[in-house]
């Protein structure tokens, strides 16, 4: 059966309209970029991390975190001690640390990988923290079940109950105790012995020197006595000769 010219015209017009409609259809929107993660804003929103933020600023650890978050494909996990956690430390616990040791303490609260709460129950203990280095592995141990997770340093154990943030690439978990590493606070940590006081050493050396050396006064008195005895003896001998 032959196709009429009118049918061909209608078909051609239909195809033309279909192609035009496809060309005008809007493209699918590209996935929105999440942008850089603002760790500072996460802590400020929590409202009880003033001391932690002050230490991060003082040691410039904030900069390290921001750089790592925006360059690492593994993400980060950070345990943030509350202000009460720092207030419960023994007096002078932080002031007794050097600048480098304060950095290590902060890095001990950081893992170089994103972990959800459920993933923390599947890790192989101990989990290396960012404080690990040439001195060895500074690790944390995780235990628990279901949604309850406990983290232990060997000196301190605390429960993780919730998250300030748990979206890749950053997980932040508030904790009610400062995680104290045995390398800084344990009984086997290396403590340099203070040098002996200079005054004690000086007195001791002076006493030893005085004891070793003879007294010049006694030697002079003895010499005078010998000389006097010689003169008296010589006088007696002369008197005997004259008589």
TrEMBL record:
Residues 36-179 form the FAS1 domain. GO terms for cellular component: plasma membrane; side of membrane. It is found in: Cell membrane. Residues 1-23 form the signal peptide. GO terms for biological process: plant-type secondary cell wall biogenesis. Residues 191-222 are annotated as: Disordered. It comes from the Eukaryota. It is a lipid-anchor; GPI-anchor. InterPro entries: FAS1_dom_sf, FAS1_domain, FLA_A. Keywords: Cell membrane, Glycoprotein, GPI-anchor, Lipoprotein, Membrane, Proteoglycan, Signal. It holds the Pfam family Fasciclin. Coiled coil: none annotated. Belongs to the fasciclin-like AGP family. May be a cell surface adhesion protein. This is FASCICLIN-LIKE ARABINOGALACTAN PROTEIN. It comes from Salix purpurea (Purple osier willow).
